[in-house]
Amino acid sequence: MRIISMMSLLALMSGPVAAASWQIGDNDGYGAGICDNCQHSFNGFTANYDGRSAAEMVATDGTQYTDTYSTAQPGFSPHGSETVATFSFTGLGNSWAVGHLEIDMADFQASTFGSVITTFNGITQNFAYNDGFPNTLIHFYTLTGSVIDSINATGELVITIDRNNSTDFYGFDYLKLSDIAAPVPEPETYAMLLVGLGLLGFASRRRMQKTVA
Ligand SMILES: [Ca+2]
Ligand SMILES: [Ca+2]
Ligand SMILES: [Ca+2]
Q1: Host domain of residue 121
Q2: So which residues are the signal peptide here (predicted)?
């Protein structure tokens, strides 16, 4: 067990895979310096808080819905009354075999306020997140075969996130699309993995002790 774990760790660490990636949004903490995967207060910001940089303001003229809170709430959306956030990745070519998407988002409360409806190139995705207020989380998607096929057919990935009458407020920091199968873990992920492996070892030792006793 331990040998297998070490081998998988080594496999993970054996260097980055050459990959192309495309990003919408600039990972500046929702424009408000809010950390990834943590709790936040938005520090008294109101629901129509707009933390976009000048570059993001320009990008918002079409496909950018990052750094506002809330992104798809009528009247608070960067596009006024819009309730569907659309993110468009273009120029993707037609030689995709695998891919994944990571989305940095905040305050999803699907079980409290209702789910949003999300599609990738028109193909419905499971997006019933209940991360809760006041949590930010980076979510990962492995693109399905149908989505890969649609990228190869159109050279684009168009993501729509429809508020669907949910009364939830939420925000996005960035979306990053990559043409590799799985994310390359960050150093913190290795640390968490090691802690996890340690806990597993501790648990199995305890089980063995119990069995002996
Ligand atoms: Ca971020
Ligand atoms: Ca919320
Ligand atoms: Ca941002």
Answers
A1: 20-183
A2: 1-19
Asked if residue 32 and residue 9 are part of one domain, the reply reads no
Distance 29 CA to ligand 3 centre (A): 6
* Digit-coded pLDDT (tens) for 4-53: 555 455 445 544 456 899 999 889 998 888 999 999 877 667 777 888 88
Q: Are residues 128 and 86 in the same domain?
A: yes
Number of domains in the chain: 2
Are 179 and 197 members of one domain?
Answer: no
Q: How far is the CA of 32 from the centre of ligand 2 (A)?
A: 17
Task: Indicate whether 199 and 141 sit together in one domain.
Answer: no
Same domain, yes or no: 34 and 109: yes
Using the mean position of ligand 1's atoms as its centre, give its distance from the Cα of residue 40 in Å. Answer: 12
With contact defined as beta carbons under 8 Å apart, do 101 and 175 qualify? yes
- Assign 175 to helix, strand or coil: strand
Query: DSSP letters along 29-58, please?
Result: IIIIIPPTTSB--GGG--TTEE---HHHHH
With H, G, I as helix, E, B as strand and everything else as coil, classify residue 77.
strand
Cα–ligand 2 centroid distance for 118 (angstroms): 16
Number of the ligand closest to the Cα of 23: 3
Sign, CA dihedral 61-88-31-46, equals: positive
**Which ligand approaches the C-alpha of residue 131 most closely?**
2
